[in-house]
Amino acid sequence: MSFFHTDRSLRSKLAAVVICIVLLNFAGTGTRAASAVPGVRRCSANTPFYTASAQESTRKFLDAVKDSIPALKRLWTCENFCDREYVTCSARGVEVNVDDIIVEGSLPEVPQDVVATDVVVTRFMLSGNGRNLVGTLPSSWSLLELLTDLQLAGTGLSGTLPESWGATVNIHALGRSLLTNMSTLARANGPRKRIRDLSYNNITGTLPAAWATSANWQYLLLNNNQLYGTLPPEWTHFKSLEGLNLAHNVLTGTLPPSWSGMPALHALSISDNRIDGTLPDEWSGMKLMTRLQLNSNKLTGSVPSSWGKQWVNMEKVALQNNALCGCAPPEWTAPGVQFFTADPPLLAPDCSTANACEGSSSSHPSSSSVHPSSSSVDDCYAPITLYTDAQNAATHAFLERFNDVFNIGWKIDCTNFCSWQYVSCTVDGVELNMGGVDLIGFLPPVPSTVKSADVVLIKVDFSHNDNLMGSLPTNWNLLPRMRYISVASTWVDGELPQSWASMKSLQFFDASHTLFDGTLPPQWSALTQLKVLRLSDTQLLDGTLPTSWSAMTALEELSLDGNNFGGTLPPAWSALTAMKTFHINNNRLFGSIPESYSKWIKLSTTSLENNNFCGCLPSDWIARRGKSLAVTGDQPLLADDCATANSCDHSASSSSVVPPSSSSVPSGSSSSVVPPSSSSVPSGSSSSV
């Protein structure tokens, strides 16, 4: 399976849209199921987000889902669907994410008494834990105009791809008065990618040519199924498609030259099929192409020289295990180039003669002779003596889930997972280091069949991956040894799981530059071993700073900059005496900086600018500023006359929960960092030492 890269500039544009939502002072961050708190079941009367007709249609649709999946029928007892487990109601619409139970049953058709266009489900995700989910894809789901993100990967679904699913996802349908605040909520749906992920199922049949005539999906993942037939030339009409994955099927025929008409396509994988013929020169017209995987097919002929000349931003090209002749484009074989993999004859110095295109293809090496295993047989089955047999079995089973989701290419029948790429084994535990590896997928939950107490995974790094999506698995709190998690600079979204408060071994968590929303969980105060917490530039995190976090006394770095936090700095945080780095700039904080923060004698760096702080720095900070402490902040806070010129208004500083009025925030700003307006901030520029 190929994993597709998303242009980082797009993230900035989407983040600007998200900022607009915050600036409009939208009330509430979303309603999550009450059962997010173990043992609590609360059923409220209604939800403020949607009209009565939208609520009725959505409830009836979700009731049909409930009746078709027994596990949900036992859990979804509330009449108000927003109070049901695995359901989140917010400005983006209704999201269903079933991520930690074994699901059996089937998917229902949209009931006849439901106005499908009024159903406000925008995301439906049931991936990797539903092998007992059987039946076919409901054709009537094409009527769900707001369903932009559908992920049904790793289930037992079979049958064919419904032609009706080519119906356009109406990304503007939120303007039809289905929601109580049309303009604000319509913008809230902006960052959601339009995805159809049907990978790792038992789907058969051909690729529907009709899909491309109306569908406006951005990512279509059909890899690891049993699809056959040819590649439809009509799919050239997929004008919005950015990523297409058809790997690991039994597709035949040739590569359609007409696909050069897909202007947005930048990632394409058709590896491990039975495609033959030559590589179309016309494809060089796909100017945005960055990742192409055509390995393990029956392709012949030469690699078009135009590909090397026109595709100047390539990050990965895989052409190995074919019968290509001639030489690779010189642009792809220059010193230092590492993104290109091909059979050795294509890369040899004498490729123009020894691998000349004249003659029969029988002279070309077979795939078995040019694609050796990444590890020897001895390594593959060597015993792992660092851990017990139970730990080896549980860890192997959990790592298999990563391979299933991301198709990393691990040889799963190898008992020695320490020999797998990206896996490191130490006496302390197992590390999965995939930072910077662009693979499409989501972080898998711990399967119910795995004894989590025996999993010895201590580190998971998926940072700097523009194709990592979905939310954080709530049941990772069951991993007793987990110390290090990084999803920085990814598309991971949702709320920070309250359940993670029980991850007693967690020492490092980096979720900066993501799309998390909601508030900071007060329950995380139980993370007493956490040393580094980075939540910078998520744009959507808001609320106040939890006083209870004063119990996180191991914290050495806390980065909360670039968010929408309001209120004051909790005086109780003075107990965080291990603090060395403290970044809270670019929020909506106000009031004074507690003098008790002088107890942070190890503090070496802090950023405070673009808030609405009054008064002065703590006395110890003033004494050490410019010596052992680097401080950046708004000039009035740092000025010599801060005590008088920047004095705190008593009524404002006494409040710990009321942020400055919305009038102090410039409306309509697209900046990723929004300082308070000049009317609420004493004059003077930000300065640093």
UniProtKB/TrEMBL annotation:
It comes from the Eukaryota. Gene3D superfamilies: Ribonuclease Inhibitor. Keywords: Signal. The keyword Signal applies. Residues 653-689 have a biased composition (Low complexity). Residues 646-689 are annotated as: Disordered. InterPro entries: Leu-rich_rpt (IPR001611), LRR_dom_sf (IPR032675). This is Putative proteophosphoglycan ppg3.
